[in-house]
TrEMBL record:
Pfam families membership: Inhibitor_I9, PA, Peptidase_S8
Keyword Signal recorded: yes
Family assignment from sequence similarity: Belongs to the peptidase S8 family.
Keyword Hydrolase: yes
Tree of life domain: Bacteria
Protein name: Peptidase Vpr. Serine peptidase. MEROPS family S08A
Domain Inhibitor I9: 56-148
Active site positions: D185 (charge relay system), H218 (charge relay system), S522 (charge relay system)
SUPFAM superfamilies on file: PA domain, Subtilisin-like
Keywords from the named record: Cell wall, Hydrolase, Protease, Secreted, Serine protease, Signal
């Protein structure tokens, strides 16, 4: 999921004169979400389908405990204890549950929340949602969404062993002792020899029991990276672990499970939360983001995986894009990267490996051949057998090039950027065992545009041999999701950590040795969670914001093959450096700056921001302040004071002013503010966006039904299409295009719709109220913003015809027939005069739109004499057809 917009940051409390009586949160949503305010309390994605059960999250009007606790300290609410307020909230929950059951008698409460979220997860009839929403005690009803897992030897990569030699204020080694880390994941193998000493509790919210056993290995691997203390050492080997299973056997989980894990982690007094999970959409996810943001307000450090959808810009997932969590990208370990040198030329040029590519050779001399853009026709023109092919990039997917080269007998491929600078390709497909597919592909690497052009020129000059070698260093990895965060226009990830081939613990039920390798931002994230545990042991008075800034300010900037720093939207501030973070004597807050989304060609815009500098030392400090721009140097000016003096144990401020000429090309512009005191230099990356071309103006988020029947039952008459607008477009139009003949129908249009979430209900009619014919339709939501057109697509089938039963026959042994229906749901039968229908299990697909069924009668099902048999057929939109057949048996 990719951005989370925390309402809690702008929440206020409405107080009456009667003590607790009218305590309630009144949310002031951020602009891009506020614009999507619903006419009722049903959040986007909640569908009130009649006749069907709905599982939802009910948010109460009362504030959760952590919000009350925070505000009571500021004396904005009555000074009651947290326990008293929790008791009060429990009473209000019981009262609301009773009121909801009056309006929805079948309502079932699955679990309640009172810590970071105020409410409950319930199941009720879809017909009753509006009735429940009308209750004063209900603030909002949220959908239950699905989250997934984003899939010691690595502790030294971030400097953990150096920190273990340090001591805290109690003269204990800094190993995480006394710090509780919550692993909100697929569970943990609690009996693993490297973990069992660290495990102090947990819960399984999937199976609802006290044993959060890991069935997929993901959570155990994450836990080992954080705190393994055996054959493998985690980053914080003496930290205590809490395991909350919120992802099921297939690695997926839902909103209610995730919130339950967050709730319990807060109740169990976790100091750090690790969530190596997310959704692959760059939009807010309200309920989970509120819970995480409130946990942070409670003083818990929250660390979340940035996602594995890279290398595309804007690919960060939710909840990683929530502003105050620490989102983590993935880098490689120190690994060998192939280096190319044309024989007879001194220039050595580094390349990028591609995830799951067959191993590229790291030494030797090869003949080189120019293979154009790597098409089949390009290879037919050359002799590539045994040679390395030089190919110009024409996209991020390089698999077809590797396949064409394989067919041509090439040894390998070097594919260079058609633009200036370095680049990453999309990870390649693996074989059936999850290994590089050497039968389909040759080894392939990418190289920068500058290096590629240089090689091509050397080749044109007759130099046809290349020499291969290697260099060992860290890099960003291709699959790591990139920012920025859509809609809030911010830098993400915050930091980076190793996430490739990480060796950690695995359940012995899955791997006999108990250890194995995994890759992903899921593996990078626990490095940062473990680092946070060490920082909190050394600095127990630090809050989550300070921990985040310490890790970010002191991070190591990783560089690409041309020795240029990766953009902040790839690496954040850089790869964390634990020794520097834990010994820093200064912090800069916030850890990043956003100058927002600007409209092009609107003149020079002046934007002011402020950084807070904290001097943690006992001496006054003088900081030298400077700015570096990554791009846009001719049209952007960022001014800061050249020096800043901050007294001992004091704070100061750095005003940062950007003048941005919006005549610059549309795009993403980044840079950083640096503050140096002696040998230590702190970094704060920043971003400004001049209406870049790559972000999604509109995102499709799902639909309540794929098949509708406007003439059918109420619950099948419509579908609810949910989409998200990152900005407010000038116009929006919804059309339906038939799959047969391509005829288009206008369904709806408007000007200047609001940004944010929208639920749009379609009942199969055009804008004039005329019903569309039966068939398959592509529903296209098209909008325009600053001359840029964007669309989201949905697919809906209209079916108003009932199934047709043909060739219905019966004898003493069997009932048979055929059904003409593309969307068959059920075939059943009964004898006339009986009430219960019996499902016919033997139903077989014959061809498109035709099924046949058979039912063998058992003894006693038919009676002597006349038997009138009724066959009933249902389709997926509620159409029902019945047909009778009579059989007479001997008396």
């Amino acid at each position: 999921m990719k951005k989370l917009i925390p309402y809690v940051l702008c929440a206020t409390l409405v107080l009456g004169t009667g003590g607790w009586g009218s305590l309630a949160v009144v949310a002031s949503p951020t602009p891009h979400v506020a614009a999507a305010a619903q006419k009722n309390k049903l959040a986007p994605g909640v569908v009130a389908s009649k006749g069907k059960q709905a599982s939802v999250i009910i948010e109460m009007s009362e504030a959760p405990t952590v919000v009350y606790s925070s505000l009571s300290k500021t004396k904005k609410v009555p000074a009651k204890s947290e326990g008293e307020y929790r008791k009060y909230l429990g009473q209000k929950q019981k009262q609301l549950i009773a009121e909801m059951k009056e309006r929805s008698p079948g309502l079932r409460v699955k679990r309640t929340y009172d810590t970071v979220f105020s409410g409950m997860a319930v199941t009720l009839k879809g017909d009753d949602l509006q009735k429940v929403a009308a209750l004063p005690g209900v603030k909002r009803i949220h959908p239950i969404r699905t989250y997934k897992a984003l899939m010691s030897k690595s502790a030294p990569l971030i400097g953990a062993p150096d920190v273990w030699k340090m001591h805290d204020g109690r003269k204990q080694a800094v190993t995480g002792k006394g710090i509780k880390v919550a692993v909100i994941d697929s569970g943990v193998d609690m009996n693993h020899p490297d973990l069992k000493k660290n495990m102090i509790g947990g819960y399984d919210f999937v199976e609802n029991d006290k044993i959060p056993q890991d069935e997929v290995g993901h959570g155990t691997h994450v836990a080992g990276t954080i705190a393994a203390n055996g054959k493998i050492k985690g980053v914080a080997p003496e930290a205590s672990l809490l395991a909350y299973r919120v992802l099921g056997a297939h690695g997926g989980g839902t909103t209610d499970w995730v919130i339950s894990g967050i709730e319990q982690a807060v109740k169990d007094r976790a100091d750090v939360m690790n969530l190596s999970l997310g959704m692959d959409v760059n939009v807010p996810d309200e309920a989970v983001s509120q819970s995480l943001e409130r946990a942070i307000k409670k003083g818990i450090v929250v660390v979340v995986a940035n996602g594995n959808a890279g290398p595309a810009t804007w690919s960060v997932g939710a909840p990683a894009a929530s502003p105050n969590i620490i989102s983590v990208g993935a880098s490689t370990k120190i690994i060998p990267s192939p280096v190319v040198q044309v024989v007879g030329d001194n220039k050595k040029m580094e390349t990028n490996l591609i995830t799951s590519s067959p191993q590229f050779p790291l030494k030797g001399t090869y003949q080189l051949v120019d293979a154009g853009k790597g098409k089949k026709s390009d290879f037919k023109k050359i002799d590539a057998k045994g040679k390395i092919a030089l190919v110009q990039r024409s996209g991020d997917d390089v698999q077809s090039v590797a396949e064409n080269a394989k067919r041509a007998g090439a040894a390998a491929v070097i594919i260079y950027n058609h633009l200036k600078g370095d680049w990453f390709a999309i990870p390649m497909e693996t074989d059936e065992n999850g290994e590089p597919d050497t039968k389909r592909f040759v080894p392939i690497v990418t190289i920068s545009g500058g290096f590629g052009t240089h090689i091509k020129n050397q080749l044109a000059a007759g130099k046809t041999e290349i020499k291969l070698s290697s260099v060992k260093r860290e890099k960003m990895v291709d699959f790591s999701s990139r920012g920025p965060a859509n809609g809030i226009w911010d830098v993400k990830p915050d930091v980076t950590a190793p996430g490739v081939d990480i060796v950690s613990t695995l359940p012995r039920s899955l791997e006999k040795t108990g250890y194995g390798k995994m890759s992903g931002t899921s593996m990078a994230t626990p490095h940062v969670a473990g680092a946070a545990a060490l920082l909190l042991q050394k600095h127990p008075d630090w809050n989550p914001e300070q921990v985040k800034s310490a890790l970010s300010n002191t991070a190591v900037e990783l560089k690409d093959t041309e020795k240029k720093e990766y953009s902040p939207i790839s690496q954040g501030a850089g790869r964390i450096d634990l020794p520097k973070a834990i010994t820093t004597q200064s912090l800069v807050v916030s850890n990043r700056l956003s100058f927002g989304l600007l409209q092009p060609k609107t003149g020079v815009k002046k934007i002011d921001r402020t950084l807070r500098v904290e001097n943690l030392s006992g001496k006054a400090k003088r900081y030298a302040v400077r700015v570096e721009l990554d791009n846009g140097k001719k049209g952007i000016r960022v001014t800061v004071p050249s020096t800043l003096v901050v007294g001992a144990k004091s704070q100061g401020q750095v005003p940062v002013t950007m003048s941005f000429n919006t005549s610059l090309p549309r795009g993403i512009y980044t840079g950083a503010v640096f503050l140096k005191d002696g040998k230590q230099e702190l970094k704060v990356p920043f971003i400004a966006l001049n209406e870049p071309k790559g972000y999604e103006v509109i995102t499709s988020l799902g639909q309540s039904a794929y098949i509708i029947s406007p003439n059918g039952k109420d619950e099948h008459k419509f579908t609810l299409l949910t989409y998200y607008l990152a900005v407010a477009p000038s116009s929006l139009k919804i059309t339906a295009e038939s799959s047969e003949g391509g005829k288009k129908y206008l369904l709806y249009q408007t000007n200047n719709p609001a940004a944010g979430y929208t639920d749009w209900m379609w009942d199969g009619k055009d804008s004039k109220g005329k019903k569309l014919p039966d068939g398959d339709y592509a529903i296209i939501v098209e909008c325009e913003y600053l001359g840029k057109k964007a669309e989201a697509n949905f697919f809906v089938l209209i079916d108003t015809k009932a199934p047709v039963i043909t060739e219905l026959t019966a004898d003493a042994d069997q009932l048979s027939g055929k059904v003409k229906e593309a969307w068959l749901e059920e075939v059943s039968w009964r004898l006339a005069g009986e009430k219960d229908w019996q499902i016919i299990e033997d139903v077989n697909y014959v061809e498109d739109g035709l099924f046949e069924f058979h039912h063998a009668f058992t003894k006693g099902q038919l009676k002597p004499g006349k038997n009138l048999i009724i066959v009933r057929v249902k389709d997926s939109v509620g159409h029902v057809t019945t047909k009778k057949v009579e059989i007479e048996l001997p008396q």
